[in-house]
């Protein structure tokens, strides 16, 4: 069956350092979404990637979808304390266009 | 997200009691979802509904029940059969577009002792 692993589980960085989280799937994904959850908050949608090799940028955030559509990454350049939170990838459950499965998340701590 | 109301924010219950969590939306979205989140973990799908009077089990439906009598409302009942009910419960909605993003409520933190 489909298996998606999100790594790392935790990441501590000094403010100003870069950060990357990865989602790696054993099967091809039709699309992938990324969400951010601040401590004590709820997940908030960041972006969706659909095309093979797609790269999208939002200010200091860069999202990539691999050529084989099995891997995706979220990269933050020069982290700030406001980037603190847990970042999740989410992907369609096999055979379902609506049911989303969430990765286990990467919890980012930014040290001032 | 504005437009999705989960109440209450915190809920305390004694073991053996059923409890119903409320989720109301005014976004006119067709689909609604319930996820459970345990500390330091990801979100696991409990139930979802794509239209009124229809719903499907997610990955961890045992010990939970739902209803969808109105488009705006998707209450979740945590029954006494749920062995580990203490968790953060998140309701989400999704519009009719395929692969559209989820919009989440602020969540209800349930503690059962």
Q: Which key terms come to mind for this protein?
A:
heterodimer, A: 112 residues, mainly beta, 6-stranded mixed β-sheet, 5-stranded antiparallel β-sheet, 0% helix, 54% strand, B: 113 residues, 7-stranded mixed β-sheet, 4-stranded antiparallel β-sheet, globular
Cα(first) to Cα(last) distance of chain A is 42 Å
- Give the % helix of chain A: under 10%
Helix run count of chain A: 0
**Low confidence ranges of chain B:** none
Instruction: Output the number of helix runs of chain B.
Output: 0
Average pLDDT over all residues of chain A: 94
Return Rg of chain B in Å: 13 Å
Describe the largest sheet of chain A.
Answer: 6 strands, mixed
What is the alpha-carbon Rg of chain A in Å? Answer: 14 Å
Can you offer a commentary on this structure?
The complex is a heterodimer of chains A (112) and B (113). By secondary structure, chain A is mainly beta. Helix content of chain A is 0%, strand content 54%. Chain A is built from no helices and eleven strands. Chain A has strands at 4-7, 10-14, 19-25, 32-37, 43-49, 55-58, 61-65, 71-76, 85-92, 100-102, 106-111. The model of chain A has no long low-confidence stretch (mean pLDDT 94). In chain B, 0% of the residues lie in helices and 50% in strands. In chain B, strands 2, 4, 5, 6, 9, 10 and 11 form a seven-stranded mixed β-sheet that branches. The interface between A and B is medium-sized, with 25 and 26 residues.
Q: Which helices and strands appear, and what pairs or packs with what?
A:
The complex is a heterodimer of chains A (112) and B (113).
Chain A: E1 4-7, E2 10-14, E3 19-25, E4 32-37, E5 43-49, E6 55-58, E7 61-65, E8 71-76, E9 85-92, E10 100-102, E11 106-111
Parallel strand pairs in A: 2-11
Antiparallel strand pairs in A: 1-3, 3-8, 4-5, 4-9, 6-7, 7-8, 9-10, 9-11
Chain B: E1 4-7, E2 10-13, E3 19-25, E4 31-37, E5 43-51, E6 54-57, E7 64-66, E8 76-78, E9 87-94, E10 103-104, E11 108-112
Parallel strand pairs in B: 2-11
Antiparallel strand pairs in B: 1-3, 3-8, 4-5, 4-9, 5-6, 7-8, 9-10, 9-11
